[in-house]
What we know:
Layout: E1 27-28, E2 53-55, E3 67-71, H1 81-91, E4 97-100, E5 112-113, H2 122-127, E6 135-138, H3 145-163, E7 170-179, E8 183-188, E9 193-200, E10 203-207, H4 218-227, E11 243-247, E12 251-255, E13 261-265, E14 277-285, H5 287-304, H6 316-336
Parallel strand pairs: 1-11
Antiparallel strand pairs: 2-3, 3-12, 4-5, 4-6, 6-7, 7-14, 8-13, 9-12, 9-14, 10-11, 10-13
The structure holds fe (ii) ion.
Amino acid sequence: MNSQPSAGGTLAATPMAAGRGGDTGAQEAQGAPGTPGTPGAPGAPGAPGDFRVWPGDPATFTTSRMQAIRHNFDRHPLMQLGELAQLAKRLHPHKQCRFIVPGATQTSEFDHQDTDVAGRSIDEVFERIEEPRSWIALYNVETDPVYRGFLAEVAATVRPLVEREQPGMYQVGGFIFISAPPSVTPFHIDRENNFWLQVRGRKVMSVFDHTDRDLVSAAARDNFILYGQNTRVKSDEYLSRARHFHVGPGDGVYFPSTSPHMTRCEPGSARPGDGVSISIGVVFYTEVTRRHAYVHALNDALRRRGFSPREPGESDGLDRLKALGGRALVWVGKTFKGYKPSASF
Ligand SMILES: [Fe+2]
């Protein structure tokens, strides 16, 4: 997920290798088909098993394309502000509470730190969370046993949809963003597939096509998968390529691994008593993302030797073959070069 640390070591020193955590787009309407009460959608939650994530159209859902989704986890007890404040207090000693550096814009570096800029305690941060520009993120909430169970609950509702195309979901993680307008999360990419759920308040989630090589070059994407070095939007002109999902509680967006994305909370979007935005990215890998990671490893090596290899995802047969070579490169890097592969592999 966002701005993961770079892996140690490199593959670059190995003989065959190189170098491993917007407004013309469609404005997505809220209340996509399948809201509670409509056929095929869950009813009002009240007991375990009543919480769900569901696509607007299950028949056309695909893991290879961004799309609007719906959910009712906004009513889940563990997604309420008081419970999240308790979670933040448990995560803070482990540096898993992140605070954005003041002055961030959607196109600036995604810089964040593990202490509040004003030196406030977690209690103080949450007491004043409705103040403009508040921003705290809770990283890797799967490390908390209670929230690991929550993530398993979410994952169980999407697994049948995901695994019909991408078997072997693993490493389900969660990243929770709590903010008050005006605030942003800058442009970045992540390694995992993402079910991103808006829980409270309103936000604009802008997502770009993960195959747009003008926006993020093939070499930059290889580098990110291998080393976690993130990328910035090249130019404001590319921002027009985003799809903008205007979301409120119960809305969400699914997007595949390495889809660039950024968010904004606008002052005008807040409703009385609803000024705080809470969202959670439920992220995961699959056998497909793992195979693609190995293809990225091989492609990175080939690119450094002057080739222009085909991107992962273009040919399943070729990917399977190339993944064998990528796997060998990663093994060599891990065994002899101090390379520490991410969970992508
Ligand atoms: Fe992200």
